[in-house]
Amino acid sequence: MLDSGDIGPGQNRTTTVERGSFSIARCTCGWSGPARRARALARDDAADHATSRHSRSGTSDSSNSSDE
Ligand SMILES: [Zn+2]
């Protein structure tokens, strides 16, 4: 019920929209994935995006960034 824009880690910031027989993953950051024939694949895209783009262990939350 909290809708103040503060999304913590592990929360669902991604959604899947259906276009005809296709499903497309979308994120609150504006990202959208490719059209998939199965919603499971779209959710997989969303999960992969959220992990690579919004994961706490990979982002620059701390000053200790040795990844990129
Ligand atoms: Zn995103």
Q: Which keywords apply here?
A:
single chain; 68 residues; alpha+beta; 3-stranded antiparallel beta sheet; 24% helix; elongated; binds zinc ion
In short:
It is built from one helix and three strands.
What would you note in describing this structure?
With 68 residues, the protein is of the alpha+beta class. It has a domain at 14-54. Helices cover 24% and strands 25% of the residues. It contains one helix and three strands, in the order E-E-E-H. It has one helix at 39-54; strands at 14-19, 22-27, 32-36. It has a three-stranded antiparallel sheet, covered by helices on one side. The radius of gyration is 14 Å and the shape is elongated. The chain starts with 13 loop residues before the first strand and ends in a 14-residue tail after the last helix. 12% of the residues are buried. The site of zinc ion has 6 residues, from helix 1.
